[in-house]
Amino acid sequence: MPARISTPISITIIQEEHEHLSNIMERMLSFVRSLQEVNTNVDLSVFRAMLYYIGQYPERVHHPKEDQFLFAKIKDRTHQLDVELDNLSEQHSKGELLAHRLLTALQAYEFGGTEALPHFRTLVEQYTHFYFAHMRMEEERIIPVALQVLNDADWNIVDAAFLENRKEMDDDGQRYHYDQLFSRIMSASPGPQ
Ligand SMILES: [Fe+2]
Ligand SMILES: [Fe+2]
Question: How far apart are the CA of 30 and the centre of ligand 2, in A?
Answer without folding.
Answer: 22
